[in-house]
TrEMBL record:
Record has Oxidoreductase as a keyword: yes
Binding site for NADP(+): A155, S169, W171, T197, D201, S224, G296, S297, Q298, I299, N300, A301, S302
Protein name: Riboflavin biosynthesis protein RibD
Entries under PANTHER family matching the protein: 2,5-DIAMINO-6-RIBOSYLAMINO-4(3H)-PYRIMIDINONE 5'-PHOSPHATE REDUCTASE (PTHR38011:SF7), DIHYDROFOLATE REDUCTASE FAMILY PROTEIN (AFU_ORTHOLOGUE AFUA_8G06820) (PTHR38011)
Native source species: Shimazuella alba
Catalytic activity, reaction form: 2,5-diamino-6-hydroxy-4-(5-phosphoribosylamino)-pyrimidine + H2O + H(+) = 5-amino-6-(5-phospho-D-ribosylamino)uracil + NH4(+); 5-amino-6-(5-phospho-D-ribitylamino)uracil + NADP(+) = 5-amino-6-(5-phospho-D-ribosylamino)uracil + NADPH + H(+)
Length: 364
């Protein structure tokens, strides 16, 4: 690993520490270095507050003159809720800027790099670029498409079962895996389930971390006829918002009751089923960058069949359940040939207690 890569790696670690709290902004880390000495470091903490470069340069103070700043994302060059970072870098007399990845946002998109070069500053691009791109994969996808980056999370026995034949599913995985799922929720803008999951499990879908409540994602329910019980825990919006996507063939009495409780009810059209593409478009318009699907077999199948899933996180518990009637994680019709199976790429795995967690992407 080169010297530039070592310092960029530190900037990436600073950015990672803010996972879940910067949306709709990206996670960004920065370090200021001179003569191989760390002078300042910082991360963007939340939207509307100073960017990572500003924190790092403030810490460096007058010593920033003639330094190198390493930043995971191209510095902005526009006035938004905060002033442009490029001008702060120029003002502080930074000699060299090392950037992990460009910013596809139309307000930035190369303008920051151009401004720095115009000011006579040496700019190095693409250092640990893949790591920086993965750091903000949801942000980049949303900026390109206007839709959220979708992660499918499953938890199964070794034979692929998600519940017994009578619906009992507590618990397939161990405490360590379930704790990590709460960390994942903390990092997501929204969680999606179907009405069947709400009826069967009555989940809250909030975030509970060891040190207390984390950031609660928006709870999204796909419910074509508004079968969600009025007493469902997920309708309690004291901690998190709940949005129900339905069709025009909905229960009007329930719609009024849900709305009175503060729940948003959104129709995607005539149906008979909720239009998932429209759901994702609406979520993107509402500023949802990342969406984790925690549904049952039918929702999971619909998301995969519609090519809506980008990333899969699959927990495997060292158990066998068996039984033809026990549901598996993916429902729907089976393809006729193994060659038609969906394959994951860039696969990695971790162990949580006795469980194995496999992560992969559905595009190269």
């Amino acid at each position: 690993m080169s010297n530039d890569e070592q310092w960029m790696s530190l900037a990436i670690q600073l950015a990672k520490a803010t996972a879940g709290q910067t949306s709709p902004n990206p996670m960004v880390g920065a370090v200021v270095v001179k003569e191989n000495r760390l002078l300042g470091s910082g991360a963007h903490l939340r939207a509307g507050t100073p960017h990572a470069e500003v924190h790092a340069l403030r810490m460096a103070g007058e010593e920033a003159q003639g330094s190198t700043i390493f930043v995971t994302l191209e510095p902005c060059n526009h006035f938004g809720r905060t002033p442009p970072c490029t001008e702060k870098i120029i003002e502080c007399g930074v000699k060299r800027v090392v950037i992990g990845s460009g910013d596809p946002d139309k307000l930035v998109a190369g303008k920051g790099i151009a401004r720095l070069k115009e000011a006579g500053i040496e700019v190095v691009e693409g250092v640990l670029e893949q790591e920086c791109l993965q750091l903000n994969e949801a942000y980049f996808y949303h900026r390109r498409t206007g839709m959220p980056f979708v992660t499918l999370k499953t938890a199964t026995t070794l034979d692929g079962k998600i519940a017994t034949a009578n619906g009992d599913s507590r618990w397939i995985t161990g405490e360590e895996s379930r704790a990590f799922v709460h960390q994942l929720r903390h990092e997501q803008d929204a969680i999606l389930v179907g009405a069947n999951t709400v009826i069967a499990d009555d989940p809250e879908l909030t975030t509970r971390l060891p040190q207390g409540d984390g950031i609660h994602p928006v709870r999204v329910i796909l419910d074509s006829k508004l079968r969600t019980p009025i007493t469902a825990k997920i309708l309690d919006i004291s901690k998190a918002s709940t949005w129900i996507f339905t069709t025009d063939d909905k229960d009007l009495f329930k719609e009024a009751a849900f709305q009175e409780a503060g729940v948003q009810v959104i129709s995607t059209g005539r149906g008979p089923k909720v239009d998932i593409t429209k759901v994702l478009e609406i979520l993107g318009e509402k500023g949802i960058l990342s969406l984790m699907v925690e549904g049952g077999s039918q929702i999971n199948a619909s998301m995969l069949r519609g090519n809506h899933v980008h990333k899969v996180i699959a927990f495997l518990a060292p158990k066998f359940l068996g039984g033809i009637s026990s549901p598996s994680s993916i429902g729907g019709e089976s393809p006729e040939k193994m060659s038609e199976a969906l394959s994951l790429h860039r696969v990695s795995w971790n162990q949580y207690g006795q469980d194995v967690c496999v992560t992969g992407y559905l595009s190269g």
